[in-house]
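ZP: hey, is the MU-OXO-diiron complex queued? I don't see it on the tracker
AM: it wasn't, my bad. submitting now with these inputs:
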Amino acid sequence: MKHRISEKVTWVGKVDWELQKFHGEEYSTHRGSTYNAFLVRDKKNVLIDTVWKPFAREFVQNLKKVIDLNEIDYIVANHAEIDHSGGLEELMKEIPDTPIYCTGNGVKSLKGHFHQDWNFVEVKTGDTLDLGDSKLIFVEARFLHWPDSMFTYMTGENILFSNDAFGQHYATEMMFNDRVDKAELYQEAIKYYANILTPFSPLVTRKIEEVLSLNLPVNMICPSHGVIWREDPLQIVNRYMAWADNYQENQITIIYDTMWEGTRKMAEAIAAGIKEADGEVTVKQYNMGRNDKNDIFTEIFRSKAYLVGSPTVNNGMLPSVTGMIEMIRGLKPRNKKAAAFGCYGWSGESVKLISEALDRAGATVVDEGIREMWNPDREALQRCREYGKNFVQKL
Ligand code: FEO
């Protein structure tokens, strides 16, 4: 399949409607994904990125229908992760001497993945590649989100090939942002940012400021997943600036796991107290044992505060809770207040352990949390409700 993107640029990637999990089993992709690769035709022809490895043969076969492979003068590998470099092995069997332009870290990563001594050309920020009427300008984007990541800007048509940045795991044949449902698009875009880019937020801000300071006109942003930003392309850049800046909405998220419904009842009573104290704040509740962890983290990313609940089991918390807090620790959302809650029958350690884990995860823990013994009765639930009211005052 091919799509015309502009006079000189053709999309030659793959729409993966079936994908449900990405990064192994680590990232849920409810709406599939795309692996975007682009063919630039000028006096010199360039292929920018490839597709994920399972689609390598299909990719090369399709590419042959678009261009005689021997007419590809250069390959640009903006990023070595195999969802973008996975077609290289198959392609390089056909055109083994074609130069591959990438960063120094890209050379290391590509060699690390494929153990091949291809014709690498190492580039740095500001290096250019003349194509005839247009040229490519390379911009290193270290740690957005791997050390090797790079943007490539094409003059003339004013296109930024941003690789993972500004992407979404969103399968669609519609290709452009102005042709898809905006709510779906932004749900996938913020989920992508939250789950992949949050740890690198300070770098996101600096890189965007650096690119904007070049005053390059941008007609389109072509990320390597999801749709191309054609209508008001800088809208996603502005969203990234907001998401990278201690982002929060007027939302409190309550996440918990529960064995015999006691901790769930506490969650609901706390939520009721919050709503009683503040009718404007959005309160959302998720059972960590049942809901998708990437979706939950997206909600935490959007929140100004969150509460984490678990009953005490085996002198600790439930494993789903341990895993979620570890995920929060790794992704490092900033500017979040938090607290713990949970019920217990005898030893009752969970609330203290959750509070300590939240502190280590970078949250501002506002108090010692609340725990209730056995199945909370009416009075216990009233205490939870009061706790929720007081929690709002601490934000
Ligand atoms: Fe889409 Fe970092 O790979």
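AM: back. The mean pLDDT is 97.
ZP: great, adding it to the tracker
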